[in-house]
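Amino Acid Chain and Its Fold in Token Form
===========================================
What this section holds: a protein sequence and its matching fold, both as plain text.
Structure line: whole-number tokens from a learned vocabulary of local backbone shapes, matched to residues.
Purpose: to set a sequence beside its fold so the mapping can be learned.
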Amino acid sequence: MSWLRRRSPVPSPARSTWEALPVADQAACLDTLQSHWVDALTIIRKTGSALKAKPTSDDVNGVCNYVQKMVLLLLEEGRNGEMHGPMLDYFMTENILDEILAWSSYTGKNINKMKLEQLHIFELLISELQHSVLVHKAILRPLTKLLQVCGERSPVDVEKALVCVLNQICMCLSQYTALLDFFFTPSADNQASKFLVFSVLIQFMHRDGTIGDQARNSLLHCMVLSARFDCIAQYITANSNFCPVLATGLSGLYSVLPRKLADLPEDWHELRDEDKEQIPELKTFIDSLWFCNAVAEVAHPLVRDQLIDYVYHGFLLCVLGPALCQSSTDEVVMTTAYLKLFISTITDKSLMRAFLRFFLGEKVEETLIIDTVVSRINHPGQLCLVSLSLIHSLLDLNCEEVMLHLVFRYNTRNVLGI
């Protein structure tokens, strides 16, 4: 769970227009909520179909204003100990969220504003009323439809709000696993299983910044669930592209790393933590490698093994192997320095074994990769230094196979007089 520990919570998007309202008695609040909905519904009925006039910006702002006030009344009801009080009951009986979602499809240029407002509604409902609100069909049905709609090409601000809501759902799922009955559909009658929350998140896992952090954090909650429920692990490996996207994403992120650093001192031999802050591409790559490492640590063995297989064949063999044998010395120096940093980053034993198998068992141009690295100790300058630094990191692993290959086999030769 090291990924979860090393990530501080990411704040939710700011909503300056959503301010707490004072609450009088319950009956008055219910009357107020009903009045707001009547006003909003008047606008919706006047404009909400293909045969009627398109909603104007004023119409959209009016509906949003009324709905915001209604949601704030709902939150106050929840804070007063009524998790399913008369206002929430009215909210669901009138299918208010379904009505808003259906109407938003007619809002034209304002559709992204409506997506954002609806996501903020769900964000508030889940954060304040928590998991209890997710079991109601009148909440779950429009939420599921909205996740599908927003997962298809949306502006960054909508994506940020979408990932925030998905993160909240994943945290609820990890704490209250009974909710899986509402969000995960197992395979039946030759139909593949479905896990919408997970499938929408996959597209964001290689993003940088807040979106990427929250997406990876959310996916890691799903990995923990996979370790507890075989059906989730089978879905991830058989019905999702999570493992190939994660592994091939490493290849894509590696391809944009600098191939040479300017003005390096003559004794330079490794990349340090501060270099990650100065090289944004490197930080993004290390974040994804850390995520691979975290998945391997907490996921079901089925998921872990599939991921490592994709990393091995899609990244190590196809990308790093050829990169270690380029004709440009500068590029080989950087590749070696990257590898040293990668080895220092990994903590999961299974993922580390894959890297060691790559070093000790694979050949490039008929020579074992580890022997190629050792041979470069005889080269002058930085190629020698980075190779020694990589070898030092491998020895620090205290791995029997590494010691046998780098140390003991030479001692054996000396003893035998070879």
In short: Residues 1-16 have pLDDT under 50 and may be disordered. The first strand starts at residue 184 and ends at 185. The CA atoms of residues 47 and 109 lie 15 Å apart.
